[in-house]
Design a protein that fits this description.
The chain has 302 residues and is an alpha/beta fold. The protein has three domains: 70 residues, Arc Repressor Mutant, subunit A (Orthogonal Bundle); 105 residues, 3-Layer(aba) Sandwich (D-Maltodextrin-Binding Protein, domain 2); 106 residues, 3-Layer(aba) Sandwich (D-Maltodextrin-Binding Protein, domain 2). It contains ten helices and twelve strands. Strands 3, 4, 5, 6, 7, 8, 9, 10, 11 and 12 form a ten-stranded mixed β-sheet that branches. A two-stranded antiparallel sheet has the order 1-2. Helix 1 crosses helix 2 and helix 1 packs across helix 4.
């Protein structure tokens, strides 16, 4: 069986269109149609129903799609294993990252990584921990670097770094920068927090319930960029891992304060499937992420 035809079949299935699949695979549309017909003839079964609106998989096509995903994933894994066996840093990796890393050290990491390993194709996906864990389990990502997801998963996890959480306020807030603060001693504290599915929110909710954080008002904003924009234009505050605001420490737009009490950390893990050990390209990017995270406290003087 021609593995190229399997890849074409997967593209048609996922795109729902011969023309879009041809564009995705950089092949002429008539040639792709021929490959699909030859595949159907080879297996003596119809994989798609054609119509003016596009193509729709038959029951046989849906079943074959599941088989093809496994076959193509195994083929890619075999290729990567042989590259690793020869010590070649090459291939493709799909990396899921939490917003803290994407907003903080990611740009420098990518500059260094793409320069050091030009033969590696890298895909970065930004999302919260639960989403990233689900995609690693499904085989859509090779690894993720994020907080530990709330539901226990069967992923292999390793703690990379425990990041200190800072109080982040807009410059309009009358607060001295870098002075350690007790959150239960701040009157009129208005907090922007992520939604409950975020791991940091669950930690903060426990502290609020215990009375060690006493916000006067709370609003939810489920997006790091939107949170920072709002805080920067207002007298509201938020709490973030120090790596997320490493570029803001001298911008003058935000006031950053270490939190003396309660002691809050954001534990950052690397996770992958037990049956898919990290390839050499994946190991290298994890090493770079780890090195940048370890350097964060020194940049703040913490």
């Amino acid at each position: 069986m021609d593995f190229r035809r399997l890849r074409y079949f997967v593209a048609v299935y996922e795109e729902g269109s011969i023309s879009r699949a041809a564009e995705r695979e950089n092949v002429a549309q008539p040639a792709l149609s021929v490959h699909i017909r030859q595949l159907e003839a080879e297996m003596s079964v119809r994989l798609f129903e054609r119509s003016a609106q596009g193509v729709q998989a038959t029951p046989a096509g849906r079943h074959f799609y599941k088989l093809c995903n496994g076959l193509l994933r195994d083929l890619a894994s075999a290729r990567q294993e042989m590259l690793d066996f020869g010590g070649t840093i090459a291939g493709a990796i799909r990396v899921g990252l939490m917003p803290t890393i994407c907003r903080g050290p990611l740009a420098k990491i990518l500059v260094d990584y793409t320069s050091a390993y030009p033969k590696v194709e890298i895909e970065i996906v930004e999302a919260y921990s639960g989403t990233l864990a689900d995609r690693v389990v499904a085989g859509e990502l090779d690894l993720a670097v994020c907080n530990r997801p709330a539901p226990q998963t069967n992923l292999t996890m390793r703690l990379l770094f425990s990041d200190r959480v800072l109080l982040v306020s807009g410059a309009a807030r009358p607060r001295q920068p870098w002075v350690p603060c007790r959150l239960d001693a701040i009157d009129g504290l208005k907090l922007v927090l992520p939604s409950a599915h975020h791991s940091l929110r669950r930690i903060l909710d426990r502290q609020i319930k215990a009375g060690t954080i006493r916000p006067a008002r709370v609003i939810e904003v489920d997006g790091l960029g939107a949170t920072m924009e709002f805080v920067g234009e207002s007298d509201w505050s938020t709490m973030l891992p120090s790596a997320a605001v490493i570029k803001d420490r001298s911008s003058g737009r935000f006031i950053l304060n270490p939190i003396a009490s309660p002691h809050l950390t954001s534990d950052i893990y690397v996770m992958h499937r037990p049956d898919q050990p990290l390839s050499l390209p994946a190991q290298r990017i994890v090493q770079m992420i780890h090195a940048e995270l370890l350097a964060v406290p020194g940049k703040y003087g913490l």
